[in-house]
Amino acid sequence: MRRDPIRRRARGFTLIELSVALVLLALISSVLYGSLSLAGSSWNRGEAKAAQSDAMRLTEGFLRRTLTSQHPLRLHKAVSQPLYFQGAHDSLAYAAALTGRAGAGMYYFRVAVTANGDNSRLTLSRVIPDYAATQLPDFGNDFSVLADGISEVRFSYFGRDAGDSNLVSPTWRDTWNDPQRLPDLITVDVIPARGTPWPTLVVEPRLSPEVGCPIGWNPAAQRCG
Fold it and tell me: Is 124:144 a contact under the CB 8 Å cutoff?
């Protein structure tokens, strides 16, 4: 007896065929989800790296401009007339002028790492110098964020010990203790919490210390007066 062709054509999927189809669909979905997740992670990493590169580029540009053109500004009311400069291994304070677009005028800056929970930041503080002051000003708690996610910043200074003549060979040191002269060279190393360290920034102050000495520069003693 022959089967009815109409009933044979209306026959549905078997349970095995449906199970195989569901397994294949699950495999395709898992592969698709993994691909989308990988693409999203790659995108986020790219965005984070781009943001870090922008922060590095802008920060290095600002530091290069201001450190190169820093001014040997002095505390004219103090007896020894020391410079507006403090060079430590983990912070740097210096005087420099900004252009009209950036604020126009002479400022006293400080660059340091400021704690912010688990995410420290490279910060910039600034105050307007008081020309009647007898000591360096306090920066307070007001600052701008140069870069996030910074673990450490290191400064090094190339120059001579206080009181040494120009005949003495300069050397590198972690702190700068001469209140009468700026270092010959300054290096800045920034170490982020994640990723590779920034390229070392090397700058040379262009203005000599005698520029800011109103009572005359003693070349033998390398001091004002």
Answer: yes
End-to-end CA distance of the chain: 126
Q: 163 and 127 in contact (C-beta within 8 Å)?
A: no
Q: Give me the amino acid identity at 133.
A: A
Spatial separation of the C-alpha atoms in residues 40 and 76, rounded to whole Å: 58
CA dihedral angle for residue 143, residue 204, residue 191, residue 141, rounded to 10 degrees: -10
Tens-place pLDDT, residues 70-88: 888 888 888 888 899 999 9
Helix (H) or strand (E) holding 158: strand 150-159
Mind giving me the DSSP string for 7-26?
Answer: HHHT----HHHHHHHHHHHH
Whether 152 contacts 90, CB under 8 Å: yes
Give per-residue pLDDT as tens, 53-75: 777 788 898 999 999 988 888 88
Do residues 83 and 77 make contact, with C-beta atoms less than 8 angstroms apart? Answer: no
- Under 8 Å between Cβ of 57 and 201: no
Residues in the chain: 225
Which residues neighbour 13 within 8 Å (Cβ) at sequence distance 6 or greater? 21
Q: Are 70 and 208 in contact (CB under 8 A)?
A: no
